[in-house]
């Protein structure tokens, strides 16, 4: 099946700037299937008095295809994911998610490069259906193998199907820098700013007389990360996000610390762990926008997930997973907790 990706990427790499003779191709396919026990299938908040959230069984499948076509001075990289989740009792939480990304780059000498990238994600089903589209142009500077800088300029369109007042579009600009200290240690910094324009009018601030205007937000993200690659693989990332709005109650400040680790255990078992801590503040005292989840399992301010994987053949791994996500809303006493236990397998085919 992976061979079916080759003709398309070969043509794209050839058209982008290399000759057919110079083009090389790599591709891979991966499929994952899991049986899940979800402690909070409807993803409800609880006040500690009423009955708790409902648990349910689910089947989850995910397929991923990746490909890379490389010419003498050019490169095309593509990725596509298709995932689905089917619940037994909470059928209204069944989801179908598709995501794809395509990037093409052209080297201008030995240090500079330019390119274009695009991405799309579409989630259907459940209570959080959305489509997220984006495209940008970028320039890269890489004087040696240790340093790489990328600056991009693009546009984004977001459609939140349960509540179209949350739809927005606008321009984005971003920067990413990576520096490799040695073969095991590397640092990264990133920043992004976007202008988001909405359809509805902005809510006026109390005590101020305002001429009605459409809602407009400025979204800033900045952070830094550290990665270690040795007997144990470690990464640690801090990110700050500020959404500043001309609509009362929509401004938010968030701090997030995320860490991950991977190591080999006896009996050829691999342990993967990831955790995050978050802190949010709303200067207006409230937050009116609907909760929009852009990452499939990144549902709470705080999370921890563990996965054990062991190969049962050259292409198939058996996996056991567990994750917990939780947060609390201090102003109304509502809390959110969700645990998911999973047992399944991953199959991979690579050229």
What is the structure about, briefly put?
Keywords: Signal. The chain is mainly β and 351 residues long.
The strand count comes to 16
Radius of gyration: 22 Å
C-alpha geometry: globular
Percent of residues in beta strands? over 45%
Describe how the helices and strands are arranged.
Elements: H1 6-16, E1 24-38, E2 56-70, E3 74-87, E4 95-108, E5 112-124, E6 130-141, E7 147-160, E8 168-180, E9 185-201, E10 214-229, E11 232-245, E12 252-265, E13 269-281, E14 302-311, E15 316-329, E16 334-350
Antiparallel strand pairs: 1-2, 1-16, 2-3, 3-4, 4-5, 5-6, 6-7, 7-8, 8-9, 9-10, 10-11, 11-12, 12-13, 13-14, 14-15, 15-16
What does this 3D model show about the protein?
The chain is mainly beta. It has a 16-stranded antiparallel β-barrel. It has one domain (2-350): Beta Barrel (Porin). The longest helix has 11 residues, at 6-16. The protein starts with 5 loop residues before the first helix and ends with a strand. The chain is built from 1 helix and 16 strands. A hairpin with a 7-residue loop joins strand 3 and strand 4 (95-108). Residues 17-21 and 293-297 have low confidence and may be disordered. Keywords: Signal.
For this entry, give a set of tags.
351 residues; 1 helix; globular
